[in-house]
Specification:
The protein is of the alpha+beta class. Helix content is 21%, strand content 30%. The relative contact order is 0.30.
Length: 56
């Protein structure tokens, strides 16, 4: 099961992430990671994880 995390996104990115196991979210460099949703839409991979369609 994927681990839920506090919402985070990348500076300048168009989506936010809510799972620490999200492959797209994992690729964000620490220096570019910001907390919060920032009026962005949920990442497609995180949507799939939430729906149980994938694990990461």
């Amino acid at each position: 099961m994927a681990r839920a995390a506090s919402p985070y996104s990348s500076k300048g990115g168009s989506v936010y992430h809510v799972f620490s196991d999200c492959s797209a979210g994992k690729s964000i460099k620490r220096s570019l990671k910001v907390s919060g949703k920032g009026n962005k839409k949920l990442c497609g991979a995180c949507k799939d994880i939430k729906a149980g369609k994938r694990t990461r």
